[in-house]
Specification:
Number of strands: 14
CATH superfamily of the largest domain: Nucleoside phosphorylase/phosphoribosyltransferase catalytic domain
CATH class of the largest domain: Alpha Beta
Distance between the termini: 48 Å
Strand order of the largest sheet: 1-4-5-13-14
Helix content: 40-55%
Radius of gyration: 22 Å
Structural class: alpha+beta
Number of domains: 3
CATH topology of the largest domain: Pyrimidine Nucleoside Phosphorylase, Chain A, domain 2
Number of helices: 17
Shape: globular
């Protein structure tokens, strides 16, 4: 078999066999194919696409390119959750202990962020001592004992995906649904969970800007799950405004604690409860999603979820004191309020602009490997549809550099549109895709 023939076949829009895809991925992972040939193949996929069957073959070839975590020693149906990313998307920090407290093992592999704000692993770094570089046996032990474990992505889990993603990043082949879907699903499958819940973000602050593209991506990943024997479901949620009020790593940990303590942002709480109810349903614990939603809400009210969060932090070496004293998290030296200059209703909050501002403050990365300021970020005071008066606070900036604050102040004001017209609240849950297809909620 020759790599040139595989490139040519895809260039001409033909369907590749499972064997051809396995050969290509195996050879590239083992440095038998140069970057320029893999780049040519990726560009062919970008323009010609792949069938769902081809995408499933690509997914499994990448998943099996390194170590596969075997969770068979953990009793129960293990569920993993993955978000396609957004601004103030703190769902994992709430969901993992919440669903674990309900009795479902949550086996989660997460990554660091690139752009906007940090990823889940960056947020957990804000908790002193918290360890995400777990060995497989530590990961399994924590799942067995505590029903929850989060592990960072490592070089030996789906290494083909790591190599290919780095190449896509510099060859303008990121925006390809088959390549996005296979990248996400290969890591989820390699992490060993029985079932996978996807939170596909849609809107201004998300990778998928339109519902059409988001549904297509969700359907592709759900079909991949079917073809490889891992039940997968996708919830489509809005990212036309930040999900939570906190944008930044330690700030988001503090907000997650507030949610688990029965306080905090109601929009974020609602999305977490909805996602969690889907996970309970997939695990066979609750046949009625609405009942699951209320059961999880009870676990917040009676502090069981908060107790599980403490247990989870302790199990992974973190400082449990942050739960009762969030000021033990990294704190910014400078706090600056952005004041509203007019009265009216919040018409629009540009999530992408706010994410950019948080990144400029140091809460996110402009390039891979850049050090993050865990204490930096923004707290929003209002949501779309809220009334605000002149002189009230629009948002508060947290930073350690005055120059960076001055740089983002005008951008923040520009990102929040105010008018006299009253507008409705953002519809956060846009639909669900399962093996039956897309349905509105």
């Amino acid at each position: 078999m020759r790599v040139l023939d595989v490139i040519t076949k895809k260039r001409d829009g033909l369907v590749l066999t499972d064997l051809e895809i396995k050969y290509l991925i195996h050879a590239y992972t083992n440095d038998e194919i140069p970057d320029y040939q893999m780049a040519a193949w990726l560009m062919a996929v970008f323009f010609k696409g792949m069938t769902v069957e081809e995408t499933a073959s690509l997914t499994m070839a990448m998943a099996t390119s390194g170590n596969m975590i075997d969770l068979s020693a953990v009793s129960g149906i293990k569920v993993d959750k993955h978000s396609t990313g957004g601004v103030a998307d703190t769902t994992t920090l709430v969901l993992a202990p919440l669903v674990a407290a309900a009795g479902v093992p949550v086996a989660k592999m997460s990554g660091r962020g690139l752009g906007f704000t940090g990823g889940t692993i960056d947020k957990l770094d804000a908790i002193a001592g918290f360890k995400t570089a777990l060995k497989p046996d530590e990961f399994i032990h924590n799942l067995q004992r505590h029903n929850v474990a989060i592990i960072g992505q490592s070089a030996d889990i789906a290494p083909a995906d790591g190599k290919i993603y780095a190449l896509r990043d510099v060859t303008a082949t990121i925006e390809s649904i088959p390549l996005i879907a296979s990248s996400i699903m290969s890591k989820k499958i390699a992490a060993g969970a029985d079932k996978i819940l996807l939170d596909v973000k849609v809107g201004n602050g998300a990778f998928m800007k339109s519902m059409e593209d988001a549904v297509m991506l969700a359907e592709t990943m759900v079909h991949i799950g079917q073809l490889v024997g891992r039940e997968t479901r996708a919830v489509l949620s809005s990212m036309d405004e930040p999900l939570g009020q906190a944008i930044g790593n330690s700030l988001e940990v503090e907000e997650a604690i507030a949610i688990l303590d029965g306080r905090g942002e109601q929009a974020l709480r609602h999305v977490c409860l909805f996602l969690g109810a889907q996970m309970l349903n997939m695990a066979g614990l609750e046949s009625d999603v609405k009942v699951g939603y209320e059961n999880l809400n009870t676990l917040i009210k009676n502090k069981a979820a908060l107790h599980k969060f403490k247990e989870f932090i302790n199990a992974q070496g973190g400082n449990v004191d942050v739960v009762d004293n969030p000021k033990a998290l990294p704190q910014a030296k400078i706090e600056t309020k952005v004041i509203c200059s007019e009265e009216g209703y919040i018409q629009k909050i540009d999530a992408a602009k706010l994410g950019y501002c948080a990144m400029r403050l140091g809460a996110g990365r402009e390039y891979k490997g850049q050090e993050i300021d865990l204490s930096a970020g923004i707290i929003l005071e209002k949501r779309v549809g809220d009334h605000i008066e002149k002189g009230q606070t629009l948002c508060t900036i947290y930073a350690n550099n005055e120059a960076k604050i001055k740089e983002v102040q005008s951008l923040l004001v520009d990102a929040i549109k105010i008018d006299t017209k009253q507008v409705p609240k953002t519809n956060l849950i846009l639909g669900v895709v399962d093996h039956y297809g897309f349905k509105n909620t």
